[in-house]
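User: New here, any thoughts?
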Amino acid sequence: MPPRQQPGGPKAPPPPPGREGRDPAPYIVGGTVALVLVAVLVVAVAFSCLRGGEGGSEELVAGIFARSTRPPPLPASLTMASRNYLVFEVRQEPDGPVRLGLPLASGFTQGQELSFWTYVDGQWQRLGPAVVVSAEEFRTGGCRSSGGISGGPLVACGEFGPPLPRNLAVLAGGAAGAVRVIASLPGGAAPAPDARELASIVSPRDFRPREDGTLSGNPTRLRLRPGQELMPTIVGSEGDAANNVDLILADPARVQAHIEQIVRLVDQQGLAGIDLEYTRVDPRLVVPFQQMVRELADRLHQRGRKLSLTLPAPVGRPLLDWQALGQAADIIRVLPTGDPLTYREDIRRALEFAVGQVDPAKLFLVLDPYSQRRGPNGSQRIGYRQAMSLALEIRVSTSGEVRPGSPVRLEAPNLSRGGIVWRNDAAAVAFDLESNDETIFIENVFSAGFKLEMVTAFRLGGVAVADASANADVANIWSAVRGVVQSGAPQLLRPNGGSLVPRWSAQDGRLTPAEGAATTWTAPERAGSYEVELVVSDGVERFGRRVSVTVVPEPTPTPTPRPSPTPTPRPSPTPTPRPSPTPTPTPTPTPTPEPSPRASPTRTPGPTTIPTPTPTATSTPSSTSGLVLD
C-alpha cells in the first residue's frame, strides 16, 4: 500500500476559481506583517503577540489560534530561516487548503533552499519546499513568484491541510534540508500522488531535437502545486533524436538556432528552466557540446531560469569535462549504471569522481523504479507486475484424466532455481529464471532505500525519479523517498525471509507441500472444477495466479451377465453292428455241349475255365470311444 501522507503536509492545490472547490485562504503569520485572509472577503487582522518573541495566542480565523514560541533544538545541519516558530491550536479544521506565509529573518539570501518543517514526536519532519515571494506578491498572487524578488519584506509561502500542522517553521541548509526530489514523467503523463506532493521539480519528457536545431513535441499540461518548478526534458538520447544532436553540434549555425529555440520555448511557456538529456554525443563533438552548454546556461541565467543536464555516470575515464559542465549547469542528474550486480560499486566510484568536480548540491542521483532482467547480453528494464508475473508461471503435469484421488503435479518453473531471495550483492530481491541464465532483479522500496543511501553518503542535492507517473508499471518506492526527504536518512531495510516463500492453496483436495516452488495436489473425492492458487511476494506486495483443474468422475461399470454352466453331454455308446455273413456266390454251371454228328475228323477247341470269384471280406467298423468338448 502507498505510504500515508504525513498529517499537515503540503497538499495539492484546489481547482482554480470557477471550477469545483475554492481557492485556499492565504495567511501571512508573524513578524511585522499582518495576517491576510483571502476567501470571499479580504480581512486584515492584526495580532501583536506574533510580532516578535513569545506571547499569548491570537485567533487567526474562526477556530484557528497561533502563538509564537521558542523552537525545539534544531539539528546541527539546519538553521532557522523564519522569524518565528509557530504553534497552532486548531479548534475547527478549515474547509479546504490554507496558504500560509511566514516572514523570513533578515539574514536570508537568494539561492538558499528553504523548507517548511514541523516538530512531531520529538523529531523535526520536513513538510515541503517553501516559495520565497514578497509580501505584496503573496497578497496578489499567492505562492507564485514573478522571478525577481523586489525589495521589502519577504515571505516563505506554502499551502497546507486540512488537517493543519500543529506547529510550523521555515528552516534552511543542511543535508536533511537539501534532499530534493525531481519527478521525471513520460510526455503527457500525470504525476503519481506522492510525486506531486514530494517533488520540487517536475520534468515531463516532452521535446525532441530536430536536425535543423528546432524542437518537436508538445508541452504537457500540468497543475503544479505552489513551489513546484516545471523544467521539461529535451530527449536527445534515443533513435533519430540522438543522431540529430550530433548533426546540430557539427554545425555552429545549427547550434545557435538550437539555443534560440530553447530560450524561446522557456520564455513562451514560462518555464523555470530546461533539462537536456544528450547522453550519446559523438566523442569528436564533446567540445562543441560543452560550448553550447555554457552559452545556453548564460542565456537562461540572464532570465532567472535554470539549466539541468542529464548525464551518464562517469565510470572509467569520462570524456566530458565535468568541472566545466558543473560550473555552467544548475543541476546535473547522474544516470544509473546498467548492471544490477555491479551497480553499488560502479555508482560509488562515479559519485566519488563527480563530487570532486561538481558542487554536490547540484548533483541528483537518478533512481530508476523499473525492475531489471539481467542475462548474458546485458540488462533490460521490465515492469514490476511483469517481473512478478514471471515468478507466477505455473506448469501442471497430469497422467491423463484427473479422477478422484489422482495426484496432480504443479510447479513454478521460474522459482525452481532457488526461489525469490534477497541478494546482498545487488541489495535487491531477485529470482533466477528456469532457462537462458537470466535473473530478475525487482526494484521496490527495499532496493530503493539502499540506492538512496548514496544520496546522503555523498551529500547530494537530491534524487531524480526516472518515471514518477501515476500509471507506470513500477513498485511504490515513495515511502523510501519520503523517508530520506523528511529525515535526511535512508531506510535500510530487508524483507522478512518468510514473506518471500511461495505458497499454494486450493478450494479442496490436499496439497503436499503447501509451500515452495512445487507441490502435489491430490484431487478430492467429488468430481468438478477446482482452483489451485500460487501466491508469491517481493516482501512488499503479494501476487497470485490461479489454475483450474477438472476432476472427472470414475466411470460407472456396466454389469456383465454371469454365464450359466452348460452340462457336458455324456457320450452314449454306439452299438457295434454284428457282421452279416457274406453269401457264397452260386457257381454258374457250365453248359455241357450236346454231341453233334461226327464229321470228318476236325479238331475241336477245348473249353475256357472261368475262375470262381473269391469273396472279399467287408471290414466291420470300430465303435466310438467318446465326445471331446472345446
The first helix runs from residue 135 to 141. Confidence is low (pLDDT under 50) at residues 1-28, 30-54, 586-630. DSSP finds eleven helices and 36 strands in the chain. The longest strand covers residues 528-537.
